[in-house]
Every structure is written in C-alpha cells, then in structure tokens.
C-alpha cells in the first residue's frame, strides 16, 4: 500500500489553516509553520468555523522555526505573496530531496520565485476558489466555496499535463473532503483566474465597495469589463487564448454571488499590504514583454500602489 503523504503548511492563515486543518482531520500527518499565534496554537490547537461544519483540532504539530520541521513529501506554501521574501530562509529548511512544493497563492510570479529557491521540477500549484479568513489566533472562518484547481508548473509556461504525482496529490486532497479539479495547462488557468482578480480585487479597493456594486453600477461595470478584456488579450499574447464566452460567464457568476469583499479589499481594510505585484505588476510586465499593453490595468495598478500602506 502507498504511504500516506505527509504535509507541511507554510503559513497557517485563512488558506493554510483551513486546508491544513482538513488534511489533519482526515488523518494525514500535518506540520504547521505558525508565526504570531504560535503559543496559542501550541496550547489550544486550531479552530475552524466552516459553512460545511465546524471542527477543532486540539493537538496540532506547530512550529515557529522551520529548521525544527520535518521534511515532508508535500510542502504547501500559503503565505501572502507580499511575504515571499521569507521563503528564501524557510524553503531550504523544509524541502527535502523528494519533496513537492504546492503553492496556493494568488496571482502570477509565485512559482518562479519558489523555483529560484528549490528548482522548478518539484512545483505544483493550486488556484483556490475559497472565501476564508483568519479571524483570531488559531481561529479560521471558512465562509464559502473551497475548490482548488491543481496543475503542474513548467518554467517555460507550456502545459504540464496531468502527472501521476498530481493525481496522487489530488486523491489525498479529495480524501480530506477538499473539492479539486485538475488542469493540464496551469499557466492558462492562472490567466483565467486573473480575468476575475484583476477587475474585482483592485476595483473593490479603488471604489471602496463590494462585488455587487461593481457589476450593478454601469460605469464601474464598464471599467471591470475593460480590465477583463485586457487580461484576456494579455493571456492570448503571453500564454494561450481564453474561450470567448468565459468573460461573460465570470460577470454572470459575479452577479449571482453574495456581495463579496475580495482578498485585496480585506487586506486594504485591515491596513495590510495588498498583493499588488502578484495580481497587477507581474501580469502587466509579462504582457508588455509579449508586446501587449494593458493601459486600464496600469491605471488601476498605479492607483493601488498609492493606496498600499507603507511596510
Ligand atoms: N483567504 C482566501 O479565501 C483566499 C486566499 N488566496 C490566496 O492564498 C494566499 C494566502 O492567503 P491567506 O491565507 O488569505 O492569508 P493570511 O494572511 O490569512 O495567511 C497567511 C499566513 O502566513 C503567515 N506568515 C506570514 N509570514 C510568515 C513567516 N515568515 N513565517 C511563518 N508564517 C508566516 C501569517 O502569519 P500571521 O498570522 O502571524 O500574520 C498568516 O497566518 C494569498 O496569496 C491569497 O491571495 C486565494 C484564494 C482565496
Ligand atoms: C476568487 C477569490 C474571490 C476567492 O477565492 C479570490 O481570489 C480573492 O478574493 O482574491
């Protein structure tokens, strides 16, 4: 029988705490790297309030020093991209010869940063369609959704296909009740997610509103649609085309969503740094390198940089 994968969670926040918690609940051996709430989690464990049912894990294997963590088969990166400078110290201590690294971060550029530290051939990515927040020390609130779209990373941006290691990881996540889907073309999946994140994350901050207002108000909706079209054109140039009806589908889905504060709006409202480079800077630069300008996106990028709290 195949040995069960062992997981380390780098960043026990909304995403790492939620998915890591589900993996531990399902019986996997999970090791959590924790920062500000280390003492609390060491003593009281993790609490997850979830639309799918609340649970607590009174005993979790928590660490505040990565060099004390075991090298696990799967290392899950769940820091905000704004904290990625820390990965240079963390990853060499937790990634072993045979470890895979699964990054669950938003936006573009994260895999390349990780590849510079641990090599490209061990990297998988998961795009999370999840609404989760860390609301207190060791306390996660999962509000909605949860699907992870999983793919193989390739440094040349070509489709990585569905490998056996991706299938194995998929089985483990599903065994933990995590909904997943596999994609052959991770780069295209990232651009498709940006078709939503580029308009709605930044516009919710710039206009200080939730998603419902962005699709209801004709002027704001028009800007969102322009941003979506620019993102699709960039995908076409940098990567591969996005099917034509996808943009309209994203608008329709957003119309049906409960009024929602995207992660960037939550960060802004809390005075935390926003993931502006991952969601705007990298895509704009990738598009420019492929000969495509994103003028509306650039305008929003410049506005967001001014609004970003000094760190
Ligand atoms: N939340 C969501 O629903 C979704 C999030 N995402 C993406 O997932 C990624 C993670 O976001 P999210 O979980 O929301 O962010 P959170 O801020 O909730 O979690 C990040 C965690 O990383 C910890 N951390 C930061 N630096 C270090 C460090 N040097 N050592 C150890 N721990 C550290 C933070 O610790 P501390 O608690 O001390 O600050 C925090 O708990 C982002 O890229 C985000 O865009 C994508 C889709 C949905
Ligand atoms: C898709 C969504 C809205 C939640 O997963 C997101 O990516 C975000 O809030 O940044």
From TrEMBL:
**UniProt protein name:** 2-dehydropantoate 2-reductase
Source organism per UniProt = Pontiella agarivorans
Lineage, top-rank taxon, reads: Bacteria
Q: What is its EC number?
A: 1.1.1.169
Keywords assigned by UniProt, alphabetized: NADP, Oxidoreductase, Pantothenate biosynthesis
What chemistry does it catalyse, as a reaction equation?
A: (R)-pantoate + NADP(+) = 2-dehydropantoate + NADPH + H(+)
What Gene3D superfamilies would the database entry show? N-(1-d-carboxylethyl)-l-norvaline Dehydrogenase, domain 2 (1.10.1040.10), NAD(P)-binding Rossmann-like Domain (3.40.50.720)
PANTHER family to which the protein is assigned, alphabetical: 2-DEHYDROPANTOATE 2-REDUCTASE, PROBABLE 2-DEHYDROPANTOATE 2-REDUCTASE
Q: Where is the Ketopantoate reductase N-terminal domain?
A: 8-154
Q: Which family does it belong to?
A: Belongs to the ketopantoate reductase family.
Any matching Pfam family: ApbA_C
User: What function does this protein fulfil?
Assistant: Catalyzes the NADPH-dependent reduction of ketopantoate into pantoic acid.
Q: Name one GO molecular function term.
A: 2-dehydropantoate 2-reductase activity
Metabolic or biological pathway, per its Swiss-Prot or TrEMBL entry: Cofactor biosynthesis; (R)-pantothenate biosynthesis; (R)-pantoate from 3-methyl-2-oxobutanoate: step 2/2
The residues covered by the Ketopantoate reductase C-terminal domain are 186-307
